[in-house]
């Protein structure tokens, strides 16, 4: 697969990435190398990665406990302290080997340590390959509020190696699939239609689907790096999806949702809102709802769940001047940003989801 050139950094695929990484290490005089992993990727992915490394640099492994609940400033402080104790300086290199939590948090740690050191993302989950590792967003959660603290800062390179997907459980694969579905819904109708019958997909060609998803996100981000305009389209399904994810994360009576599981619900809800606003047809809405529900289990919402979810919307990063902003689809494959939605319509969407 051809390398994708993002804004000022390349996205390599499979073996070509390791060749580029080793050449980069030879050509740049780094003082030392730090690999940030979580407890899962330390066990499952690091043994697959290390044999590819060709360097005489001192390598230090920094591990933190896996899970969205650890994507916070406290974990960053711990890692900053470890970097300091191990003699990291402005010529150090950080490699983030992991899913979205690792690449988001590791990128933020590197971007802020000594005002910024080089970092490379090697995503190991489907979600992080097609979403979190592309676009230069780095950050952490503030309590249960998603990605409230962060910076835009670009990695030196990204390496997408789909062999890491063999380490994933099925629910993590489905979680990543949600973002791929989103890319079709907002940008490429033909791409969306490839997922209408999952049984018909030849998973020997799955690398090509991943490649197209990365390309779509990169095309959008390149047009609007700091989310002033068209990049807001990537938030489709995320306004309600993030609120649902945050609510389930903080509520001890709920089972924590994976990011893609929450976004899948968000896309159905926001597709209903698009339908109610006459932006998509009823047949398009039914196709979206049926397809997503055929892949993801239904999430149970009780009557007393909805108001707390709506209250979380006020913290959404896309809000401007106190107004909640939605990105809605205007026909499959097209998007309409900066849309205001009244609470009554959101409640109708939840009611339809549960029906």
Automatic annotation (TrEMBL):
<feature type="domain" description="3-dehydroquinate synthase N-terminal">
    <location>
        <begin position="62"/>
        <end position="174"/>
    </location>
</feature>
<keyword id="KW-0520">NAD</keyword>
<dbReference type="Pfam" id="PF01761">
    <property type="entry name" value="DHQ_synthase"/>
</dbReference>
<dbReference type="GO" id="GO:0009423">
    <property type="term" value="P:chorismate biosynthetic process"/>
</dbReference>
<dbReference type="GO" id="GO:0046872">
    <property type="term" value="F:metal ion binding"/>
</dbReference>
<comment type="function">
    <text>Catalyzes the conversion of 3-deoxy-D-arabino-heptulosonate 7-phosphate (DAHP) to dehydroquinate (DHQ).</text>
</comment>
<dbReference type="GO" id="GO:0000166">
    <property type="term" value="F:nucleotide binding"/>
</dbReference>
<dbReference type="InterPro" id="IPR030960">
    <property type="entry name" value="DHQS/DOIS_N"/>
</dbReference>
<keyword id="KW-0862">Zinc</keyword>
<keyword id="KW-0170">Cobalt</keyword>
<keyword id="KW-0547">Nucleotide-binding</keyword>
<protein>
    <recommendedName>
        <fullName>3-dehydroquinate synthase</fullName>
        <ecNumber>4.2.3.4</ecNumber>
    </recommendedName>
</protein>
<keyword id="KW-0456">Lyase</keyword>
<dbReference type="GO" id="GO:0003856">
    <property type="term" value="F:3-dehydroquinate synthase activity"/>
</dbReference>
<dbReference type="InterPro" id="IPR050071">
    <property type="entry name" value="Dehydroquinate_synthase"/>
</dbReference>
<dbReference type="InterPro" id="IPR056179">
    <property type="entry name" value="DHQS_C"/>
</dbReference>
<dbReference type="Pfam" id="PF24621">
    <property type="entry name" value="DHQS_C"/>
</dbReference>
<feature type="domain" description="3-dehydroquinate synthase C-terminal">
    <location>
        <begin position="176"/>
        <end position="319"/>
    </location>
</feature>
<dbReference type="InterPro" id="IPR030963">
    <property type="entry name" value="DHQ_synth_fam"/>
</dbReference>
<dbReference type="GO" id="GO:0009073">
    <property type="term" value="P:aromatic amino acid family biosynthetic process"/>
</dbReference>
<dbReference type="InterPro" id="IPR016037">
    <property type="entry name" value="DHQ_synth_AroB"/>
</dbReference>
<keyword id="KW-0479">Metal-binding</keyword>
<dbReference type="GO" id="GO:0005737">
    <property type="term" value="C:cytoplasm"/>
</dbReference>
């Amino acid at each position: 697969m051809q390398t994708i050139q993002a804004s000022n950094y390349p996205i390599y695929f499979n073996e070509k990435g390791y060749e580029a990484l080793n050449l980069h290490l030879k050509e740049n005089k780094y003082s030392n190398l730090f690999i940030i992993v979580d407890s899962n990727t330390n066990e499952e992915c690091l043994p697959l990665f290390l044999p590819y490394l060709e360097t005489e640099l001192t390598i230090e492994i920094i591990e933190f406990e896996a899970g969205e609940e650890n994507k916070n400033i406290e974990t960053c402080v711990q890692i900053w302290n470890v970097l300091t104790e191990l003699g990291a300086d402005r010529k150090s290199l950080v490699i983030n080997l992991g899913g979205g939590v690792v690449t988001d948090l590791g990128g933020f740690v590197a971007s802020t340590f000594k005002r910024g050191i080089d970092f490379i993302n090697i995503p190991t989950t489907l979600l992080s390959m097609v979403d979190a590792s592309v676009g230069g967003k780095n950050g952490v959660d503030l309590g249960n509020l998603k990605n409230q603290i962060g910076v835009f800062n670009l990695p030196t390179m990204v390496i997408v190696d789909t062999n890491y997907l063999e380490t994933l459980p099925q629910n993590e694969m489905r979680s990543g699939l949600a973002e791929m579905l989103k890319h079709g819904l907002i940008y490429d109708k033909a791409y969306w239609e490839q997922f209408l019958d999952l049984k018909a997909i030849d998973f020997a060609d799955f690398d090509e689907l991943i490649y197209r998803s990365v390309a779509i996100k990169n095309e959008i981000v390149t047009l609007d790096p700091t989310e002033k305009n068209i990049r807001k389209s990537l938030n489709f399904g995320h306004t309600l999806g993030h609120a649902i994810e945050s609510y389930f994360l903080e509520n001890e009576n709920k089972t924590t949702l994976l990011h893609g599981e929450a976004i899948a619900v968000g896309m159905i809800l926001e597709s209903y809102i698009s339908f109610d606003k006459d932006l998509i047809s009823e047949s398009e809405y039914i196709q979206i709802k049926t397809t997503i529900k055929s892949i993801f289990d239904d999430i149970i919402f009780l009557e007393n769940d909805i108001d707390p979810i709506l209250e979380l919307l006020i913290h959404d990063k896309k809000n401007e001047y106190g107004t909640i902003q939605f990105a809605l689809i205007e026909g499959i494959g097209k998007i309409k940003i900066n849309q205001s939605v009244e609470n009554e319509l959101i409640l109708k969407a939840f009611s339809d989801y549960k029906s």
